[in-house]
Amino acid sequence: MAAGRPVVASAVGGLLDLVVDGETGLLVPPRDVPALRAALERLLADEELRRKLGAAGRERAREHFSWPAVTAATIEAYEEALAG
């Protein structure tokens, strides 16, 4: 995502927090090879969708997962723990 490329991921674990289906990438059910194939074919056939998902994914990665964003979230968590 950070490279601005569209993502196809299995809808499991932390990937559900990273990828917003249809917005920053495409999620498919785990171990569903036909769904994975369909998602990849969809991206290959639609240049505009690839651009849209790639740009949105890059922005999400920058906003939520860059070092400044992760550092700020970590400090906030520590401050909340200390205040509690």
Structural key phrases:
single chain; 84 residues; mainly alpha; two-stranded parallel sheet; 4 helices; 63% helix; 10% strand; elongated
What does the model show?
The protein has 84 residues and is mainly alpha-helical. The protein contains four helices and two strands, in the order E-H-E-H-H-H. It has helices at 15-18, 33-45, 47-65, 67-83, and strands spanning 7-10, 25-28. It has a two-stranded parallel ribbon with strand order 1-2. Helix 1 (15-18) links the parallel strand 1 (7-10) and strand 2. The longest helix has 19 residues, at 47-65. The radius of gyration is 16 Å and the shape is elongated. The termini are far apart.
Count of DSSP H/I helices:
4
Helix content: 55-70%
How many E strands? 2
Strand content: 5-15%
The gyration radius over C-alpha positions equals 16 Å
Q: Given the helix and strand composition, which structural class is it?
A: mainly alpha
Coarse morphology: elongated
Biggest sheet details: 2 strands, parallel
Strand order of the largest sheet: 1-2
Low-pLDDT residue intervals, each spanning 5 or more residues: none
Element order, helices and strands? EHEHHH
N/C terminus separation: 35 Å
The residue-averaged pLDDT reads 96
Summary of the model, kept short:
This protein has 84 residues and is mostly helical. It is built from 4 helices and 2 strands; from the N terminus they run βαβααα. Strands 1-2 form a two-stranded parallel sheet.
